[in-house]
Amino acid sequence: MRALNSNINPSSQTFKDNVVEMKKLIELLETHLKTSRFEGKEKSIDRARTRGKFLARERIELVLDKDSPFLELLPLAGLEKKGGFGAGGTNVSGIGIVSGKLCMINSNVGTRKGGSVDQTTVFKGLRIGDITRECKLPTINLVESGGANLPDQATIFNYGGESFREITRRSALGIQTISIVFGNATAGGAYIPGMSDYAIFQKKAAKVFLAGPPLVKMATNEESTDEELGGAEMHSRISGVSDYLAEDELDAIRMAREIMEFIPPTKPHFIPNEKIKEPLFDPEEILGVVPANIKTPFDVRELIMRVTDGSEFSEFKAEYGTTMICGWTKIHGYPIGILGNNGVIFSESANKAAQFIQLSNQKNIPLLFLQNTTGYMVGKKYEEGGIIKNGAKLINAVSNSKVPSITLMIGSSYGAGNYGMNGRSYDPNFLFAFPNSKIGVMGSEQIAGVMEIVQRASAKSKGTPYDEEQGKMIKGMMMIEAEKKSSVWHSTSEMWDDGVIDPRETRNYLGFCLAILYNQKIEGAKSFGVWRH
Questions:
Q1: Disulfide engineering: 145 pairs with which of 13, 115, 119, 362, CB 3.0-4.6 Å?
Q2: Is the dihedral angle over the CA atoms 99, 102, 103, 104 positive or is it negative?
Q3: Helices 347-362 & 387-400, crossing angle to 10 degrees?
Q4: What is the 3-state secondary structure (H, E, C) of 435-458?
Q5: pLDDT for 187
Q6: Residues 6+ apart with CB under 8 A from 291
Q7: 218 burial level (CB within 10 Å; 0-12, 13-18, 19+)
Q8: How far is CA 467 from CA 348, 452, 472, 473, 480, in A?
Q9: Cα–Cα distance, 1 to 8 (Å, whole number)
């Protein structure tokens, strides 16, 4: 493959100014991530320490292999949600390596609101379940939770049951779940270990019951202690709910790692066996390449050459549909097809991308979508030229593609351009965002401008004068609200992505995701839906 050449001048003032602006966004990202790592008040943490407990993130470190990467997912879920338990909810989730095997790990933050489950935690868990099933990953649940947060019960009850169902469905597919119970697993939470393939209970710590002593007393007038009703020894010796009785936390984690040793490994589709080439250009330069201001255009090839092996890229139809860049390359030795926007999507761009997706499916090569577009081109000329049928052709190809996919939002993600570039509703296996990115039906100025035109037309049809002062005020308020709702912090809070990442870490994120995707058989689509010509 041919290596790409850069046209960027890192010494230019524009480049330097952009680095400054991007670093401000990364500092804000780090601030939010620091907030998400909050594991409870000092009093709660001190109480856990006196009881010999590890914290949620410490348990993850202990269960992982030495030097294993950990791809944390949805750390900022619920960031802007009022009334919730804060960014990330009360669960830390991500993918790492345990006993030499890729594994999904979920760790309840028992020192944060007692590990109770709010709405954010439930919906985050459902997305984690989707990734686990699609990537065929065994799961280790590190359980310590007070169950559903009762004030949220009306909004989470129906959805909470889905997480139990998915454990058993994965089991039927041979995707196994190990649950270690370090503390409370009450009410609905008792079904987490109950439905797992393997359940490990910690002696004198695990409390697993459908109803605690006070509720049992109220319902049946029966008196019992926590240990009698749902202790680890009772469940290990009498009920059979527990499969392994652990002396302490370290013993429980040792048991989980031992079980993982005997879980059959998957047969990888492909493992790189060649020496990996580093990019020819410094990934640090991405901060100057990708504009902090999404209105500033840039050549997506400049990003591609800073994340691919040897900065190599075999471009497809380079002279045709030039606002859509398509081509094949490798990242950390894994073959991948890349589609990247260089602006608005024209008919030619859509046609090229649709053909490229078909070819990648023929070759069983995963796809990476780099989103930076205001959407499909509009106007009389383009409607006559069939922008709808050609745009639909791309959406058809994305919808029916069977190869695994990753989407990365690097700028604008507006309108049906989000759909054609494999947005959240098209089920990419992973979707990440840069801190400068924005998403919505259209930009804030366009939304406010369209509404102004509509209001002026409405006033004219009624024969009343248009109030210029009031109109200006409404337009300004609408722009502020639209800008806020299109920000990456709002979209990640709503779980429209799986995480906001530092652009300099793009290659590492993509490489690890590809290792996960290539860990199972990859087979592209053999047919696509009907499209107009």
A1: 115
A2: positive
A3: 20
A4: CCCEEECCCHHHHHHHHHHHHHHH
A5: 76
A6: 18, 297, 298, 411, 436
A7: exposed
A8: 43, 11, 9, 10, 20
A9: 21
Can you give the pLDDT at residue 482?
64
Strand 198-202, strand 314-316: pairing = unpaired
Q: At 18, list the tokens.
A: 């952009």
Dump pLDDT digits (tens) for 116-159.
889 999 999 999 999 999 999 999 999 998 777 767 777 787 78
Write the CA distances from 32 to 76, 439, 489, integer angstroms: 7, 19, 9
Which token pair is 488? 């990456």
Query: What's this model's pTM, rounded to 2 decimal places?
Result: 0.93
Concatenated DSSP letters of 31-73: HHHHHHT----HHHHHHHHHTTPPPHHHHHHHHSPTT---EE-
Number of other CB atoms surrounding residue 55 within 10 Å: 20
| Bridge partner residues of 3 (DSSP) | 312
H/E stretch holding 369 reads strand 367-373
- The gap from C-alpha 491 to its chain's centroid, in whole angstroms, comes to 11
Contact 437, 488 (CB under 8 A): yes
- Cβ contacts of 444 within 8 Å, gap of 6 or more: 478, 479, 480, 482, 483, 486
> Among the ranges 230-234, 252-256, 526-530, which has the highest mean pLDDT value?
252-256
- The secondary structure of 132-149 as a DSSP string is HHHTT--EEEEEEE--B-
Handedness of CA 477, 480, 481, 486 (dihedral sign): positive
Spatial distance between the Cα atoms of 360 and 525, rounded to a whole number of angstroms: 9
User: Rounded to 5 degrees, what are φ and ψ at 102?
Assistant: -65, 140
CB 315 within 8 A of CB 352: no
Give the pLDDT mean for 66-86.
Answer: 93
- DSSP-derived letter for residue 235 is I
Rounded Cα distance, 504 and 489, in Å: 19
**DSSP secondary structure code for residue 312 in this structure:** B
CB 142 within 8 A of CB 56: yes
Q: What is the DSSP letter of 531?
A: -
Cβ pair 125, 92 in contact under 8 A = no
Segment 334-367, tens digit of pLDDT? 999 999 999 999 999 999 999 999 999 999 999 9
